[in-house]
Amino acid sequence: MKTIVVLGVGLAGAPLIRQIMRTIVLKKKGYKMIVVSPTTHFLWPIAMPRVVVPGELVDDKVLFPLDATFKEYPTEKFEFVLGHASSLDPAKRSVSIAISEGASRHVQYDTLIVATGSSAKDEMPWKLIGDAERTIERLHQLQKKVEVAKTIVVAGGGLTGAETAGELGYKYAKHGQKEVYFVYNHELPLSPAVIDSVRKQTQTELQKMKVKLVPSTSIVGVKTQGDDTVLELRGKDGSSTTLKTQAYLPTTGVTPNTAFAPQEMLDGKGYIKQTRSLRAEGYDDIFVIGDAGNLEDNRALAADAQAGHLIKALPAYFENGELAEYKVSTKPMYAITLGQSKATGQMGNMKLFGFLVWFLKGRFLGTDKAPLIAAGKMTLSATFEK
Questions:
Q1: Do the record's keywords include Ribosomal protein (predicted)?
Q2: What pLDDT was estimated at residue 100?
Q3: Which of 86, 179, 188, 268 could bridge across to 199 with cysteines, CB 3.0–4.6 Å?
């Protein structure tokens, strides 16, 4: 019996699990899949900037139980292990799993697929925080803080930060109900990888919603003072000031969930070194997709594309050893939702019509597709036989 072990059930892992079960494990003799995850639920991260706003989206729009899908599979062909990978021994083809109850277990594999994703810094629920229960607990804490706050501060100038500031500005700032600040360390919102026309429109739309923009500034200190959080701000010119808030929402990046991997498999930032065949560098029996790998930026579209590639490529690989090379996209694509009525974005070096981005993403933030992606019946870009 050949064992395929999959670590992770996120945006990249969930569709791959179902499709590899259908095209390989259930179709051919001699295969079994073991899925390892610290959570029993799939989290839909794309909608989280709207979810943190109280009353906008309920929990079950972004968290989906996996048991409905997994119970379809015969136990002799499929096993779900609730826990997280604590160490990996590639020489022995073995993964050590820390089980939720405190025990540990060693799982042998013939093929390993790493789809462990990443975690948001500062224990923010932009990504899963351990398990579904902890994520929901933290989310509800933030919603309560936002609800009672007079002043809200969003920090970090990336897509999550801009979208969160937009959602809060749309709900509160433009009506004068609450002050919403957006602190970021560039002159314009978003990464310099985004074209200036998109960054300037993001700035303009946030200003129209009366979000108070604080550019070219970093947060260098965070202190709790009763029910308030006091932020120490430092400008690029060296100036310092403080800002008091009752709801602080940092969006300052992610950390790859790769602590289990041997140091020699990782690059200097902790990502697994990933080849264009989506293998771990130097290991023909280990595949890596999504945020855990270093081949592409940590974006949903990259994770989706990598999962889609392996879904197509692995049947031939298991049949005759052939493995098509993954083509890294050289055309940057960004879709930025700014509140519930505005959006902007780019494809390559071309700015997209805001209405198009709003229609495709901004209306629902993908919550209309999320249940099918959680069930593995589609990716962001492809729908499979149900």
A1: no
A2: 66
A3: 188
